[in-house]
Write a structure and sequence with these properties.
This protein is an alpha/beta fold and 391 residues long. It has 14 helices and 15 strands.
Amino acid sequence: MRVPFSPPDIGIWEQIAVIGALDSGWITTGPKTALFEEKIAEICHTKKCACVSSATAALELVLRLMGIGPGDEVVTTAYTFTATAAAICHVGAVPILVDIKKDSFAIDPQQAADAVTGRTKAVIAVDFAGIPCEYPPLVEAVSSARKFIPSNPRQEALGRPVIIADCAHSFGAARDGQVCGEMADFSCFSFHAVKNITTGDGGAITWKPFPGEDDVSLSEELHHLSVHGQQRSNPWDYDVLYPGYKCNMTDIAASIGLAQLERMDAMFSRRRELVRQYDALLDQERFCRPGHFAPGVESSCHLYPLRLRGVTREQRDRIIRSLYEQGISANIHFKPLPMLTAYRQMGFSPSGYPIAMKTYENEISLPLFSTMTDEQAEITASALKKICLNL
Ligand SMILES: *Cc1c(COP(=O)(O)O)cnc(C)c1O
């Protein structure tokens, strides 16, 4: 039996929804996107939401909304996908990578605070695997750095670097009674094909009440940014406020998202069941579990990033190859950014990130998706255990 890594969970409901969108005569951004935004805001306990074409675009627009650009620095984690740091580069700012906290996959709040300089305008944390970061200590640490120099009224109103959550993995997750989307100043979601809820490709932005701003105008501003800076006064006339970007969500995509939200609870509980099953099948002596059920955490169970105790990078790579040979697709999350050519050329080196490197070295992400069967999880766990015995 083959076990794919993370195929999308798309069924008849999504097919019907897409046909509905195509038949409606409105296929770009329109009423379905507006409804999808309303539902996301409801799930995230926020007043508003702005949908865009990807999480990468969402991160970029938040940085632009805050007036962050050339000459500025943005602190983020070395243990993430390139999109997190690329968005910083897209606005012309400089990414400053810091290590993760020991025994976690999350950015180290103290190292983030230590990286703050007079040029730092934002910190982007990543809710890795669907486990939300602890935002209050991060905000506290970053605020206490006291080096912040605002360069526009919006930055001044906040009075500290803006905290942005990369929630590409964590839609629907919660921590200590707060859901993802309402914890950081801004939260950026992804609906890419491999994520828990998909629209094929897509993204969304939510935010906490921002000092001195009302949610409706912030939402309008994000929508203007995402479509040419265009402002409509009525159906036949418009103004262009500045040469804006083009990263809106289409109603075709939103219709898929709306169908997915209808099934979200069932899809999420299936993921949780599978994680419990993996946890039960894999002994703690050899395998260090991802922590989806840590106290206070309600994970979205996006990934199952297992740590293989005492296993070297070469052995881990051999394990993945061996699983592939048996038709089981495992993966690695993530190759730390300083290992990649683009970030090495910016001057980052793996040696500066000992915890990220140690974590990467023996990490293996097991297949996990909402249509996965118990049997597929059992086959995966027993194949892994057998390979580890014969390393
Ligand atoms: C997938 C991913 C993104 C990018 O999402 P897109 O919607 O494809 O732009 C950003 N950050 C992390 C951590 C991701 O895994």
